Amino acid sequence: MKPKRPCPSLLSPTARLPCNPSLAPPPQWSTVEPEEGKELGAELRTQNLGRLHQGHALSSALLSTCGARASRRVAALVEGQGLQGKRLLYVPNVQQYTQLSGVGVSGPASHLAPPPVDLLPPEVCSLLNPAAIYANNEISLRDVEVYGFDYDYTLAQYSDTLHPEIFNAARDILVEHYKYPEGIRKYEYNPSFAIRGLHYDIQKSLLMKIDAFHYVQLGTAYRGLQPVPDEEVIELYGGTQHIPLYQMSGFYGKGPSIKQFMDIFSLPEMALLSCVVDHFLGHGLEFDQAHLYKDVTDAIRDVHVKGLMYQWIERDMEKYILRGDETFAVLSRLVAHGKQLFLITNSPFSFVDKGMRHMVGPDWRQLFDVVIVQADKPSFFTDRRKPFRKLDEKGSLHWDRITRLEKGKIYRQGNLFDFLRLTEWRGPRVLYFGDHLYSDLADLMLRHGWRTGAIIPELEREIRIINTEQYMHSLTWQQALTGLLERMQTYQDAESRQVLAAWMKERQELRCVTKALFNAQFGSIFRTFHNPTYFSRRLVRFSDLYMASLSCLLNYRVDFTFYPRRTPLQHEAPLWMDQLCTGCMKTPFLSDMAHIR
Length: 597
Hints:
Family: Belongs to the 5'(3')-deoxyribonucleotidase family.
CATH superfamily of the domain at 134-157 and 320-456: HAD superfamily/HAD-like
GO molecular function: 5'-nucleotidase activity; metal ion binding
Structural class: alpha/beta
Keywords: Hydrolase, Magnesium, Metal-binding
Distance between the termini: 42 Å
CATH topology of the domain at 134-157 and 320-456: Rossmann fold
CATH architecture of the domain at 134-157 and 320-456: 3-Layer(aba) Sandwich
Organism: Bison bison bison (North American plains bison)
Region (Disordered): 1-37
Number of strands: 22
């Protein structure tokens, strides 16, 4: 057995890594641009980022456009006029702002704090831990007696080197078996093109990101490998960004004309779809969008059904399987504390057996009370007709009727209703982990009351980006501009409109830069600018917990209680949220609130 890689330790479910509160600018501060090299107001942004590091809340370029009346209005906001209470507000370097605008701040400024060393206080800039478990719903592990697991991307984490193999094999199947043009072979897999959770409009050959309210995020719609202009996207959907419910993906992500790509295996599928469409469009070839989509989907399916992917992994476990020692540690720890374990996977027994032997050892089945393979999820959770079948060591089926599920035995197919009847494992006593929100978790939570945990490998990378100074400064600046836009919009004179237009433009540029930090084409899998993505909406709905990998459990006691952070609704916390939105970060009120955030 390989030595177990040490895991980060946590003090609480929201434990954060230590952070130097002094956010002095690095020697070479630069923004992250989209890979295509698009210039998004780089000169102005670089200037403003530099000023932001010095503690300036607003850019000199924008403030110099302010007329006298507009400047006085902003200065009034800076002083805190019009806000509830008599809080002592702080805006970085307000004196310099008044010098730039040529307008003095009305009233005494003695109550303003001295200029800061940093823009963000320690409470705000402390770093999130990528090894933490995050709670959507309160859950105590003390109440959990039974733990269930999916196999692929849950017990077995795969390296990214698997995706190019899937892409290449499916691409060759299209050429050799579906007689697609030979020119498709020139395309290689681009791991930075797509993200999980995107939607694909089959009839329009459009890959796009949609938010929790069914709106397309403009700037994230692609036909082939080329972005579709915002105006064209709006025209395609009847003059709006909104996708009606009847067109959207159904409960399992498959609507009449729009499909959502929810699992990690869909990344090479999205890339191949885009490459094939790009080839047909680039060469002026006519094609039926529905046929093309089905052919690509079938080619990807063939890679799995024909066992190609299984063969690659079985030939080189060390190359493809990650964190096997940590999986063994998680399972052993749970068994040592008297927990019952089961496995329900769609993968075949021979493949699962070899992988578990690699990660855990030849006696891996002794850790599980029930093992079910080729379960055919999600229909396993809803179809009562399929009976359990017993498999022997060689994978041959037995014909006898199953009246009980025995430890150490292997079962195929079956259904959840017989599973519940034979095991009597019901409700919140059971916690099941999987990576697919629809196929693994949705039915279990909504129909059967199980507790669920989502494995989201992308979470680790996204948190590391969120922890960067560039992200924190960019987000804070966006919030400052948003707050100013909200307050200044009531003034419609020419000077105010000029300032509002400049702020709106700069805010949009910042949003594009922040998006590109995660992915140049589609941004974060969790957000569409300020709104949650459709993926995030499903994540919150179908999972009690979510984490980057199963190994995160090693950082918590088996009786630990996870508490979701109380996220204020729009009407619940106007005081401190007001200040976050205007960039007025350091106030006694916010400091008092920090310990309960």
